[in-house]
Please model this.
Amino acid sequence: MQTESPITREQVVGGRAISGRLVACGLLSVAVASLALAVPPLRGVAAQLTHLSPGWIAAAIALELASCVGFVVIFRLFFDRVPGPLARQIAWVEQGSGALLPGGGVGALAIGAWFLRRSGMSMRVIVDRSSALFFLTSAINVAALVGGGLWLAFAGGRLDDVVRTAIPIAGGLTATAAVLAIPYLIRRFRQRYWPAWLVDVSAGIVRARRSLRRPDWRLAGALAYLGCDIAALGAAIAATGRPLGVAPLTLGYLLGYLANLVPIPGGFGVLEGGLAGALIAYGTPATQAAAAVILYHAIAFWIPTLGGVAAYALLRRRLHDVDAAACADDHRPHRDARSSATEPVLVRAPCVLPANSGGD
Model:
């Protein structure tokens, strides 16, 4: 009897959804470029984009690649039990999903969790370790925000600039206190009923804090993930004209990225507005800021997206091979008991045979 390849409906729909997202984001990219060319006040931006420095563009691309590699490294710190090639592919898929999907991080975590679940990891462990990864990278962001504010206030001589220095510092410290309070409250009031997801998130916060107390070389990945991405924006600014200082660049990057909370595919339009506005507030000329942000976003979007799509294709092939082998094994007349000694890397989906296979 012949059997068909067990490609699930979810895999087909998932492939079509990713293709649709890519097309939509490509059209949005064209729309942003067309807007810069068509609207008279923005023609200065278009003119600036035609006089970019190739060397700084190459540097921005290299730095963005380094940022992506940094995420893969820090991902392996928390998911070290997952085989290396599989973990690296899932890390790239999460980055591509974060670039493609509205809301970025939440959708990326959900897609990564699905693949991790297929690898045999329990949902509780996934939530615990994903939370730890999220809170560790967020802690690096907050530290950079507070450090940038302090640097600008003292080294930059702007102690009286409350809006651009004190507010970011206060916001970062408040967010840190709120996150660290979660495990404390759960331990302090154990008799209360706490939702299971909040308990798992609390465990992730504790794990992230513990990882900082036990230094590991992979922690450098978290620094590279953020630092190289900020440097890529700095290279894009330098490619369009005058470079920006480290402190205002860091603050402009972190505050500008808050616009990405608006659920727009790829963040097109909203991220440009947020980053450009923040950079202008920290001293970048308006035309240069707009041109630099368009260049940066093109690099920061397409590099993780294309890497994520390639990793997704490899994961689909891996899933297909595991499911096909397991399906054939299920319907083998005389199954060898020794064949169950080795477990597949991924847990297979239920095998479904066609209703009419076309004969024996």
The two ends are 5 Å apart (CA to CA).
